[in-house]
Design brief:
The chain has helices at 19-25, 30-36; strands at 9-17, 42-48, 51-57, 63-69, 73-77, 83-87, 89-91, 94-99, 102-109, 112-119, 122-130. It is 11% helix and 56% strand. The relative contact order is 0.24. This is FABP6 protein.
Length: 132
């Protein structure tokens, strides 16, 4: 099968940078801001070539799942629960997606899942360690 299986795995939130500035910039409601702060989100990724299922398990049992194929438009959901359409691209081993008000990239770096969201110059970085 073409494409690396680099992303497949389960990752637990380890740390982030610039959370407050970023969620303020994208206008996340304050109840969601508190919910997401230092939230031990577990991200589960299943990659099959260019097909991805990307699930985030939040404490308390809420989950968000985005299913997409690299290079094809897909229905997605933001961290604030907004539905939108996006085309995820693969650039230099990174997944790149244009969310409604931010650009999101994800890559595997030294066995960790590193996600970077950028909105009007504010860069939010979230790192998760592989647990399975």
């Amino acid at each position: 099968p073409k494409g690396t299986m680099a992303f497949t795995g389960k990752y637990e939130f380890e740390g982030d940078e610039n959370y407050d500035a970023f969620v303020q910039k994208i206008g996340l409601p304050s109840d969601k801001v508190e919910m997401g702060r230092n939230c031990k989100i577990v991200t589960e990724v299943v990659q099959n070539g260019n097909d991805f299922t990307w699930t985030q398990h939040f404490p308390g049992g809420r989950t968000t799942t985005n299913t997409f194929t690299v290079g094809k438009e897909a229905d997605m959901e933001t961290m604030g629960g907004k539905k939108f359409k996006a085309t995820v691209k693969m650039e230099d081993g990174k997944l790149v997606a244009d969310f409604p008000n931010y650009l999101h990239t994800a890559e595997i770096c030294g066995g960790k899942l590193v996600e970077i969201s950028t909105s009007s110059g504010v860069v939010y970085k979230r790192t998760s360690k592989k647990i399975a």
